[in-house]
Amino acid sequence: AVVSTQSTGLYELQSKLNHSCEPNIQIVFSSGNHELSVEALRDIAEGEELCISYLSCCQLDSSRHTRRKFLLENYLFECECRKCTRQINDPDVTSDEGESDSGEEMECS
Q1: Closest to 81 (Cα-Cα) out of 106, 41, 53
Q2: Which residues pair with 28 in a beta bridge?
Q3: Which of 29, 69, 101, 108 could cysteine-pair with 95, CB 3.0–4.6 Å?
């Protein structure tokens, strides 16, 4: 028998969080149950928007081109976060240069 560790849930407040390629919070299930919590990844200024990443930790290290392509194909938006804006003039690195454009999970080191 195959045991899956992946589950699905709908969380009203979490679903209102926007994406950033430099998130300031992350989702955690610290109780080992269905209770969702958020945890700060850095100091957050008063009034700053709370953002999670829709990408895996490996995808966050990908090029701007690869991140934006994945987000457009899977979430139907073009990311304009601070990181993507800052990297606007970076070269478009593709899977030919070592990154996966397919949306498949890349191996983290």
Answers
A1: 53
A2: 37
A3: 101
Residues pairing with 65 in the sheet: none
pTM of the model: 0.75
How many C-alpha atoms does 8 have within 13 Å on its Cβ side?
0
DSSP line for 16-61:
GPEE-SS-SEEEE-TTSSS--EEEESS---TTPPPEE-SS-HHHHT
pLDDT per residue over 47-85, tens digit each?
A: 999 999 999 999 999 999 999 999 999 999 999 999 999
Q: Measure Cα distances from 56 to 1, 47, 48, 78 in Å.
A: 27, 26, 23, 17
For residue 71, give Cα distances in angstroms to 65, 75, 102, 103. Answer: 10, 5, 11, 9
